[in-house]
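Predict both folds.
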Amino acid sequence: MTNPFTAIPKEGRIHQPLNHFGIKNTKTFPQRFFVNDIYWQRSDGPVFLYIGGEGPLSKFSVLYGQHSLSLSQNKEIAHFTITFCGHHVEMAERHGALVVALEHRFYGESINPDGLDTEQLKDLSSQQALADLAVFHHYISQRFGLSYKNTWISFGGSYAGALSAWLRGKFPHLIYGAVASSAPVHAQLDFSSYNKVVGRSLMNKEVGGSKKCLTEVREAFAAVEVALLMGNEMQLAKDFGCCETPVKPQDKTELMQSLADVFMGTVQYNEEGVAFNIEELCHIMTNKSEALNQKEEAYDRLIKLAEMYLARMDAPCLDVSREKFVLELNSTTGRSSYRAWLYQTCTEFGFYQTCEDDTCPFSHTINLQSQAELCSQLFNIPQYSLPVNIDFTNQYYGGNRPQTRRVLYVNGNIDPWSELSVTWNDAMVDNDRVILINGTAHCADMNHYKALDKPALHRARKEIERRVAVWLTMQNGTI
């Protein structure tokens, strides 16, 4: 196999219309892309399109290896982003494919020159992103002299996984097959089942969880709530290394969210690069000292976990100021991926990971109101419009019952986002379109092969490779 680091991908910019659907709008923005043609069999080799999501794209989107982790503490929709790369490039080498990747508009360096103010963000949507991909398809086809013989397969993970599925659905004449990893194709306002899966995964013995672990987590958060009710905010701030003392009600909710984010991020990615994995987290939360009673033990272990988390994330303190959070999100300069993504949750997806359900192991103060109100505060989007926006998204794309063929949905069973993906086969549409991987988390299949990967993950990658190979053979007319 070719040394993956000998390839030097080409980086470029394509000038895209800010509004593909406005005839009178002639404004454009520079959209970044990467190309790796080291494996390409130029006559009839396929094209593997890696789709960028809600964060910066890098050259590793067309190379092997895991690029980056970006974790936002104390964010109401628990926005954890890891760039997973490698498996599609390994397949590209075997199939002689041209590998191309396009950064999503309004993320990374593909920012509208006018910034991220609300008026400009009106041009940010999944529909515009799909149109960007269609234009990019045309651009690459012209630049490399492609024809119908060059089969396009799209790849994406998480939101970009949904884009991969939707691109195949909306542009089937351009994309022959699509791999959609951990793709939340069903928009949902109150995503309470996210934390239901977090609780279930913390009990999963196969990944290092236990019923005891979940019990201790519940008791720890109950102890924090009691401390808040008793007015012990200063002690809590000291115990958990808070940047500020959580005196205001909204700051107390921020504290709960920040602590919950440690567990949510751990479960979502588990062994793929966050501060802890589930086994280590549960070991910390169940390592009891006989000198303390049960409730104090759980609380003290949560303190230890928070201390270790801050150290591993190289964070000076735990943000708990709602006012500071809103102020940062109101900044329209720079490249705030979180502001852009929050706008999309308000206008298209929801995805608010609440804790009002009894299955949630954290605090009921993490509710829908505390999250949805940001839409009106930041973008003047009334909360009553959110259900309408989300219903439109599901009507437009088909939700988790899409009527599309040759879309492969890949999910890990401990990933909370699998709740919004397609996890069953539908013989009426395509009886061979689902892979559910036991014991793996968010987008794990997208990384390149590692010796320590679970056997189920190895088998899943082999199955993905088989499906892609079948698609290419079908398109070439061999079968």
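Second protein follows, with its predicted structure tokens after the sequence.
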Amino acid sequence: MSYAQLVSKIEANECKPNLPIISPGDLLRVGVLIREGNKSRVQPFEGTVLGIRRRGSGTTVVLRRLTQGVSVERVLLLHSLKIASIRVLRRSKVRRAKLYYLRQPQARKTRLKQRL
């Protein structure tokens, strides 16, 4: 067994099997496990997908939300144990793989068209 085959076999065990299909422009609600002292709770983070980096078990998603005029971006590792749940709330029709133009101030007027 070669090294590459061994790594792919280990990665297959680490990946979550029931992830939804995610694409740029989607509105996601991700439940993130937060530990505070001895307690842990699930905190939802809702945002628009700006981009996806697909690397097997290292797949990451960049989420962005606007809260009270302040933009918050978060890079989440999809197959992490800290991710409790992922739900797609809305799908949008976009023509780019990376939606970095939504970071600009005039992008607040930009509306993503809903995909049916």
